[in-house]
Amino acid sequence: MTTSNDGGGDVRLTGISKTYGSFTAVHPLDLTVPQGSFFALLGASGCGKTTTLRMIAGLEEPSGGSVHLGDQEVTHLPPYKRPVNTVFQSYALFPHLDIFENVAFGLRRRGIKSVKKQVESMLELVQLGEQARKKPHQLSGGQQQRVAVARALINHPKVLLLDEPLGALDLKLRRQMQLELKRIQTEVGITFVHVTHDQEEAMTMADTVAVMNAGRVEQLGSPSDLYENPTTTFVANFLGTSNLIEAEVDTRSGEDIVLRAGGGKLVLPGSRCSAPTTAGGKVLVGVRPEKISLAHADEAGAVPEGRNRITGRIADSSFIGVSTQYVIDSPVCPEFEVYAQNIDRDARLVPGAEVVLHWNPAHTFGLDAAQAID
Ligand code: ATP
């Protein structure tokens, strides 16, 4: 079933901000969410993501800026006059009504008499056709959340806002519901704006993720962009594990930047560096743990040419099923440890062993070393 969508599902925030007394919860923010996309606002507790969502919903009056839905400015419209609906973590179902009537509620309130077909098709969309006559307490948490989604979609909003909708579910159910919500969004084709503090959830579901920190969007991009090419230390560390090595710009070689780290050199593609690259400048060179290969120092000669390499000593290793995770001390990153995964178990790669870490320079990113390390 497809919800009719005649345009107007773009969300455009222009200089939107929110202050509470002298405290700024959201700094002036410009953001466009294209119609039909699954967009996630991701960040730690208190970063301003819920406040941003509530300003789109009309549940919070902005202190400045404007909100447009499609061509319509809605900044000062009450929630019920906006073509949006919100799903909350708490489900907020009516306990005395059965599932059918919970979903029918929005239609009946608008005076629509013949609701059967629409409700049934909505229940089918969320795969609860069999549960129509049950009461909310007879359903699992995941099923109740799907009722909440069906109820929010029944009036064909142009934008569905989801405020930590999976927060109350256990991990397994959460993962199932992530896929389920993604399927529903693809099927109805409307804009979803989803607030979460869970990076895996945002990465699994969203086409575009805005990473928020202290009331600002730090970086906006596709999940793979953000993971492969973070531009701040906050994003690099919030989305997975990053190894950060302090290095100094040496020269440029075509598109590449050559850096000095300890006694050696590292190569970084210019397009993946968000730091100034004047000679002598400091850059934090980052590489994700699973991109690194590990060789015993005796076999350093067998490491192919053209790889970035650093030396170190294994401090610790732990077998974690699909891979072995190594903690490595290295002179070039005295303040950090380096984790390397996906290495075949090798009897010689034990704590104390001298090793060479090496990786394809294409997997290297560069951050401004002047930033605080989060
Ligand atoms: P969480 O995941 O914990 O809900 P969040 O990122 O959604 O966090 P917000 O709820 O948007 O954060 O809150 C942002 C900041 O604004 C927080 O520091 C919060 O304490 C503050 N805040 C939110 N609502 C109010 C209010 N009504 N009065 C004062 N401060 C508020």
From TrEMBL:
The reaction(s) this protein catalyses: ATP + H2O + polyamine-[polyamine-binding protein]Side 1 = ADP + phosphate + polyamineSide 2 + [polyamine-binding protein]Side 1
Function: Part of the ABC transporter complex PotABCD involved in spermidine/putrescine import. Responsible for energy coupling to the transport system.
Subunit structure: The complex is composed of two ATP-binding proteins (PotA), two transmembrane proteins (PotB and PotC) and a solute-binding protein (PotD).
GO cellular component: plasma membrane; protein-containing complex
Cited Gene3D superfamilies: 2.40.50.100, P-loop containing nucleotide triphosphate hydrolases
InterPro entries, per the entry: AAA+_ATPase, ABC_SmlMolc_Importer, ABC_transporter-like_ATP-bd, ABC_transporter-like_CS, Mo/tungstate-bd_C_term_dom, P-loop_NTPase, PotA-like, PotA_ATP-bd
Enzyme Commission no: 7.6.2.11
Protein name (record): Spermidine/putrescine import ATP-binding protein PotA
The UniProt record lists the keyword Endoplasmic reticulum: no
Record NCBIfam families: potA
GO MF annotation list: ABC-type polyamine transporter activity; ATP binding
